[in-house]
Structure formats: structure tokens, C-alpha cells
Amino acid sequence: MRRTHLSRAALAVVPALAAGLLLSAAPAQADSPLPLTAVSDHQTTGRGGEFTLTLTLTNPYDTPIQFVYQSVQQTYDTSLEKGLKFTATACGAQTNGCSDNVHGGIARYDVPLAPGASSSFTVTYTVAPDSACGPGVRIDFYSYLYYEYKGGLANNSGILGVPGTQVAC
Which of 7, 15, 52 is nearest to 163 (CA)? Predict the structure, then answer.
């Protein structure tokens, strides 16, 4: 008899224990919103024109940010747009450089970034003269940002949508 009660108790406890373990294994949320802003200098750009994205990282902590990894990539919708042609043509001097491939490349901010300080990263894109254009034809990006602070003991990461430009005919 005693074994039956223990078996029933085990059957009740095991699912609860498994659910608890699964919930505790869920990824942790970022400790704060990303301190990153992103803007495009032109909401609309004609074929043959250019636009510049500016991404600004601001340190909201009381310790320096000492490591930053950031990529800038076109959105999936942008990649699906047939005939859309554009290329990165310049990287701003506010950082210590850009990778050779800015699409998916790394923005290299000057670090350490002091508490309360900001650093900006700019990339200029040129739209080809024979690019697709018209209503609904857009070049948009997203940025993945990962950074460390508190001597590397704390970090934050996430994805931010980066508005680009509509390509006008």
C-alpha cells in the first residue's frame, strides 16, 4: 500500500518539477532596454542618391562599457525586394573603424565608453541608379548589439530595428 501512495505522489511531483526546470531554463531578459538610438538622415532617397544611418550608443551605467559588438544587416523584407540595389560607401570617423563588409559587419566603437558618454557610428549607403523604386520599396536594417560593463561581470544584448529609407523613382 505504501508504495502506491509514493508512486502517486511521485507522479504528481515529477511534472511539476519538470515544468519548474523548463521555466528556469528560459533565457534571461536583458537587464535594461538597449541604450541605442538609430536614425536615417533621409526618409526618402531617389535612385542614385545616398542616405546615412547614425547609431548612437549611450552608457547609462555608473561604470564604463568596455566591450561592444554590433552588426548592421538588411531586414528580410529588404532582402526579398527584387531589383533593389544599394551599397555601403562610407563609414563615419566617430568609431575606430568598420569591417570590410558593413552588411553584417561590425561597428567598432571607441571603448571604454565612460558613464553617461555617447559614441556614434555612421554608415552611408548609395542607391544604384538602376535600382528598383516606387511606393513600398524600402531599404531597412536591423542591428544586433552586445556590450559588457562592470568589468565584464554584466552584459546586455538585443536587436533594434533601424529605419532606412524609401526608394523613390
Answer: 52
**Amino acid identity at 58:** T
For residue 135, cis peptide bond before it (omega within 30 degrees of 0): no
User: Sheet of 36-40: strands edge to edge?
Assistant: 36-40, 50-58, 118-127, 86-91
Listing DSSP states for 12-65 in one string gives HHHHHHHHHHHHHTSPPPPSS---EEEEES-SEEETT-EEEEEEEEE--SSS-E
- Predicted TM-score (pTM) of the model is 0.72
- Ordered per-residue pLDDT tens for the chain, 169 residues: 555 555 555 455 444 444 444 444 333 344 568 899 999 999 999 999 999 998 899 999 999 999 888 888 899 999 999 999 998 877 765 555 565 544 445 666 778 899 999 988 888 899 999 999 999 999 999 989 999 999 889 999 999 999 999 999 9
Tell me whether strands 154-168 and 44-46 are parallel, antiparallel or unpaired. parallel
State how far the Cα of 140 lies from the Cα of 146, in Å rounded to an integer. 20
Percentage helix, strand, coil, to 5, in the chain? Answer: 20, 45, 35
